[in-house]
Design goal:
about 65% helix; about 150 residues; mainly alpha
Length: about 150
Amino acid sequence: MLTALLVSWLIRPKKPNPEKLAPYECGEEPIGSAWHAYPARYYIVALIFVLFDVEIVFLFPWATIFGNKELHQATQTQWTWFAFAEMFIFIAILALGLAYVWAKGHLDWIKPQAKIPETPKIVPKNLYEQINLKYSATQNKAQKTSSNFSTPE
């Protein structure tokens, strides 16, 4: 296998150009760098999901054996109570672990904060206030005038 890789490396064409060296993203032009770190919280949530998902897999074999009536009758229900208590302890430990990660805040996803871009203001604020007062006064006069014509007396 190593020989095949070496031979293919030796005989391949070596003609790099900017288009070949650009990362391919579904036909879209890449924007920014592809090298950025995911938040650690993403990995923690993924690991917690995998942990609980794997633990739940242990419930299926237990449930199939627990539902076997022949086994209950053969052990005179002693095994049934033992298996029930064992699974109760198992689920209690899982619930305790879930409560712990919930209390620590590991299940809370970080919500992005909206960043409102600020532009430099050329017009002073008091000029905006004067314009608003002028047009609000003009609008109030127009409304009074139109209401005088529309109401029959």
